[in-house]
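Model it.
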Amino acid sequence: MWRCRKSFLTSRHLKYDVMQILDIKDYENILIIAPHPDDECIGAGGVLLRYSSRCSVLILTDGAIGQGEHCRIKEAALRKREFINEMKQLGISDYHFLDIPDGTLLNHADCLMQYDFSRFDYVLVTGDKDEHPDHTGAYLAVKNALSNRGNGHRPRVFLYEVHKQLSEPTHWMDITGDIEKKKLLIRFHKSQTKVLPYDEMSMLNAGYRALQNRMPGKYIEVYQEVPDFDDEENNEIRGLEQKLQKHIQFYQLLVRWMKAKSRGGRIAKVLVENGIKKVSVYGYAELGQLLCTELASEAVEIDFVLDKNPAKRSEDGVRIVSPECGNRQTDAVIVTAVFYYSDIRDDLIQMGYKTVYSLSELVDWM
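Modeled.
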């Protein structure tokens, strides 16, 4: 049997000489936390199938980015329908969506602080090294919610695999008899498997994990128990993941914008159709400059550019002011920042701006 090496499970933590069978009792309840609709069955499909009557599922983001070909609104709605169909297949009715914008979960690491974990004996969640910022965000959300519970009830926490294999698995489950059923669960998420065959990926990973543990011909899921959370936050890694996610979202928005323009779409047309003739543009980085250039030749007037650094020089002759100094009576503010949009929107509304749009949603409407 494959032996666990020394890991971040320090001397304060539980250690296992060999991986243990994940043995969940008949009276124990399970909460599976997924960053996106489909992570729950890719990583923990065996648990869902074997213990469906005692599983609750919590989806943290709206899944609006995904692998699909639709705009964010349609993509989110489609992925939600696919997930609900999966739950119907399993007979699970206890599921909930937090609908945090996809790709921003690191900014909402406090989203589970008020969540009631008291009825659960097990919590399963993605790990902090699963090569996706939202998966790190899900881990941090659980960590933040459960780290300082004192002598209160604390469920056992296990990490599951999606994008990257766990380096120090502590438990395993034989899913040989359920591997085809697990693939069917994953195939409910057709919008995602069209691009990446997660069903085949999951099967191959389960077979490889079995071979690692001298079980040829078998398929297993592996998990890593986190009996205690490391108090030292790896801020450098988290910062790099946030920076990476910002660049990814920038690129995805730019591609969607150019595709919409190639079909004849125009942001000014969307604004006019919504009765908006004067706007302020929030953010004068690359996207803000492109938006100002596009609107300069249209029938929509730019009132101000709002930027936390009003000393920037405008290339379009538009006055740049701090958000505190802008015109609250402007028809709308268009926020070009993607990663921090929800926080910026809340701040602007608190300042008195009546209507706030993200550039991303306007592109979806083009």
